[in-house]
């Protein structure tokens, strides 16, 4: 059994109350680690440590070039220890070893990229319309950041906050999901070695309603960077309004994969398979609604189900496994509920729809890759975020109908478009109301490219140059000479 501690002001600590909670391995369905159940007192200590580091001492005084060097060193250490970080997330989350190894090898790029930006934040001298006035702008760190992450991709989604926030000169208190805190704490083992002063990066572990809420409501927090569900996001945004905390919200999705009659069908099938079954469908950008031209429907369903039936399920550590377990017990139950809702709503189940009882799945929380046809956009299964390996297939006749259906959800995170018509690709980019549009590809991300959603999928953007400004305030300075 692994016994983790929280990380406050550079020290490994237990909760002040001494309380702990357990984390389960989704492949074995057994407890593998315990963690401190932090509450208000621990959160208060962490926020005070972060504020002290922000306002005085070596971090507050550090030149941005030196800050950038620290970020790059951190990136090097992550590259060195990528296997250990990947292993913690495979055990805690059930993500595939092959995927995690690739991801941990890529994470350093965010620290190199934002490390490079740290000393390139420039103010401007304004050609002001007043006589004898000298007016300029300066950018300053927004302050103490509460970084709240979900269970589906803990290290990646933390990195998207940590790298730009540190580059901007902020300090952080991180609260990972109660289901998957281990990899975040493994990452903290590298913080001292990289040379970050105590208090710059802190981690409290615990549950959303007590530990998470204590953090987001704390008056010492200036900004909340949250990734998680829509309901939690709404609650946090309402709480943040009391003190006007700055907010970045990355929430849910119900992303469409629009397949036109001229698409390369083989490529589209592969793109949809990875878009919905990667990470067992537990990604905010899961392409969970296929909107396909009626002339291609039957051929698509035949090819898609043939390919999906070959997916190997089982031990996430086995490099040959293609679909792993669902990460949490409640999520496993929710996915089965959603499948029930789809059936009773009139959708036709053509594949899967049950718990996977293959011998290689053992006692783990596995769900068979599931496909519904005869779905219409009004059905609940076409509107609700399942966050599991469940695909809904809807048909269309005209291009205008396709855009309208793709946009007809409360979300606007991502969309995929499969066509060989270049003019249509540009029309797609204009017509689809989503933060990421993938054309003849799906689910690619980069430290250079903005990530975030329209509508109920959130506000603000992570990654890309502008992301550093999510962690900066702008000051206008006037001088009468
Ligand atoms: P969740 O909202 O239940 O939890 C996310 C985090 O918020 C956890 O750390 C949790 O403890 C904390 N939390 C919950 N209630 C809180 C409260 N009242 N105050 C403060 N903190 C609170 O989400 P989840 O189930 O962990 O994650 C799945 C969701 O995340 C899905 O909806 C998915 O679409 C979304 N997601 C979005 C993106 C994106 O970038 N848009 C990426 C990944 C996941």
From TrEMBL:
<dbReference type="InterPro" id="IPR029510">
    <property type="entry name" value="Ald_DH_CS_GLU"/>
</dbReference>
<feature type="active site">
    <location>
        <position position="250"/>
    </location>
</feature>
<comment type="similarity">
    <text>Belongs to the aldehyde dehydrogenase family.</text>
</comment>
<dbReference type="InterPro" id="IPR016160">
    <property type="entry name" value="Ald_DH_CS_CYS"/>
</dbReference>
<dbReference type="InterPro" id="IPR016161">
    <property type="entry name" value="Ald_DH/histidinol_DH"/>
</dbReference>
<dbReference type="GO" id="GO:0016620">
    <property type="term" value="F:oxidoreductase activity, acting on the aldehyde or oxo group of donors, NAD or NADP as acceptor"/>
</dbReference>
<dbReference type="InterPro" id="IPR016162">
    <property type="entry name" value="Ald_DH_N"/>
</dbReference>
<dbReference type="InterPro" id="IPR016163">
    <property type="entry name" value="Ald_DH_C"/>
</dbReference>
<feature type="domain" description="Aldehyde dehydrogenase">
    <location>
        <begin position="12"/>
        <end position="477"/>
    </location>
</feature>
<dbReference type="InterPro" id="IPR015590">
    <property type="entry name" value="Aldehyde_DH_dom"/>
</dbReference>
<protein>
    <submittedName>
        <fullName>Aldehyde dehydrogenase</fullName>
    </submittedName>
</protein>
<dbReference type="Pfam" id="PF00171">
    <property type="entry name" value="Aldedh"/>
</dbReference>
<keyword id="KW-0560">Oxidoreductase</keyword>
